[in-house]
Design a protein that fits this description.
This protein has a single domain, classed as Alpha-Beta Barrel (TIM Barrel), CATH 3.20.20.80. It is built from twelve helices and 16 strands. It has an eight-stranded parallel beta barrel with strand order 4-5-6-7-8-9-10-11. It has a three-stranded antiparallel sheet with strand order 1-2-3, with no helix packed on it. Helix 2 runs parallel beside helix 3 and helix 5 crosses helix 6. It is globular. The N and C termini lie far apart (78 Å). 47% of the residues are buried.
Length: 448
């Protein structure tokens, strides 16, 4: 090739590079200190919305929809939020452009790592906790750990929804343990991992304590719950939120509302003033309003039709409420240190049959992921993992197999009992307790 031709090729390549490779927007990763989130040295309060266009009936990946994402970011900016929660992700898709656009707008992502086909099956939990399931959620973790605006991972959502299903809690904790182990073994950024709970009055505090008890390797990094008990017109006292704040005042990890915004009447969003004011700022780290787009459940802030966005009355109400109550200055009175909770004792409202210092053992076929990575994820159209494991499970000490540093140790396993839980994206009936009982009566490996 002649010199002039070479120069022309080099010039064309140089000219094309800036357009082909978009510079990643700068945003401060969020970390945890005591019972609060921090962006650098500044206290970080979650001020956001739940973002899942299509809802549970039509699960899609909004972060892979670049046009829709950029369209909605303009509304997020208008609302004045800093976080969106997404319930469904396609881990085969590219998310660079939307995540970069979110970062440029100062917006973080709170991500549920389960999908309809790759989740713990509440109706048949034993086979659904397996290496194929972990491969899918680990692939999601690996993909999103590279983004500085990935705020946190939800290991599960609303698994425990009454007293009878509390014996499913060990599986929630095992999945949390496994994600933390994968992050440590792979040397990824320490993105917080925790649970989004249903607000069940009879076992609300037991569930919170259970996710925060035991060794650091198995404890949640945060605890969140979906709370619709403030229904306007109401107050901090009338809603009972004052009692919850009092009960959680010594909780040692961040707590926030992963869903809020009761729609039984006209929503005034008066709870915003309490969440980000002196009523709650020392204990809670904000919350996420349910939900951005209007779906069948009628909680929407906007309508999405034919690619266009129409603001609803609740959009303006929430926008005004957030504008009237900025995030507190200073540290908000957070607790800089604290201790793990005491594991709850078995009772009429807490029916965990596995010993407090044991959890379902890490699947042996998943050991290679800790050393060599998960590989490419199966996405939303894979064959599914809910029947890929054995019908019975094994137990290990709560930290056996949990990786607390860069090593990838194999778990120690022993025969034992198991619990179960529902897929954390659906609203199907929960039959966990019945399955454990039937399995025992049929002579399976399960022990009550």
């Amino acid at each position: 090739m002649k010199t002039g031709a070479i120069a022309a090729v080099l010039a064309a390549t140089a000219a094309a590079t800036p357009a082909a490779v978009e510079k990643r927007a700068s945003i401060q990763p969020v970390t945890i200190k005591g019972n609060a989130f921090f962006a650098g040295d500044k206290r970080f309060y979650i001020r956001g919305v739940d973002y899942q266009p299509g809802g549970a009936s039509d699960p899609k990946d909004p972060i892979a929809d670049t046009a829709g994402c950029k369209r909605d970011i303009e509304k997020f900016k208008s609302l004045g939020i800093n976080t969106v929660r997404v319930y469904t992700i396609d881990n085969t898709a590219n998310h660079d452009e939307c995540m970069n656009a979110l970062a440029a707008a100062g917006i973080y992502l709170a991500l549920d790592i389960n999908t309809p086909l790759y989740s713990i099956n509440r109706a048949n939990p034993q086979p659904s906790y397996n290496h194929e399931y972990l491969q899918s959620i680990f692939a999601t973790v690996e993909q999103f750990a590279k983004y500085d605006n990935t705020l946190l991972f939800f290991s599960a959502n609303e698994v425990i929804n009454d007293d009878a299903t509390t014996n499913c809690a060990p599986y929630v904790k095992a999945v949390t343990r496994d994600i933390k182990s994968y992050i440590n073994a792979r040397g990824l950024r320490k993105i917080p991992v925790g649970y989004s709970a249903a607000d069940v009055e009879s076992n609300r505090y037991e569930m919170a304590a259970y996710m925060n008890c035991g060794d650091d390797a198995v404890r949640s990094d945060f605890f969140a719950f979906n709370d619709y008990s403030w229904c306007d017109p109401s107050t901090f006292q009338k809603s009972g939120w004052d009692q919850k704040v009092e009960k959680f005042k010594d909780y040692s990890i961040p707590i926030f509302l992963s869903e809020y915004g009761c729609n039984k009447g006209v929503r005034e969003f008066n709870e915003v003033a309490s969440i980000y004011g002196p009523d709650m700022s020392a204990v809670y780290s904000g919350g996420l309003v349910y939900e951005y787009s209007q779906e069948e459940s009628d909680y929407g802030l906007v309508k999405l039709e034919n690619g266009k966005v129409t603001e609803m009355a609740d959009f303006t109400t929430l926008k005004n409420a957030l504008a009237k109550t900025p995030a507190p200055s200073g540290d908000g009175g957070y607790k800089s240190s604290g201790k793990a909770s005491e594991c709850p004792a078995k009772s009429s409202t807490w029916n965990v049959t596995i010993s407090a210092n044991q959890l379902p053992a890490y699947p042996s076929k998943a050991q290679d992921y800790l050393k060599n990575g998960s590989g490419k994820g199966p996405g939303l159209k894979g064959s599914g993992s809910q029947n890929s494991g054995p019908a019975s499970t094994e137990l290990a000490g709560e930290s056996d197999g949990a990786v607390t540093s860069g090593s990838a140790n194999a778990p120690t396993q022993s025969k034992g009992a198991a619990a179960s839980l529902r897929p954390d994206f659906s609203f199907a009936p929960f039959v966990c307790g019945a399955i454990v009982l039937v399995s025992s009566l049929l002579g399976g490996a399960l022990v009550l």
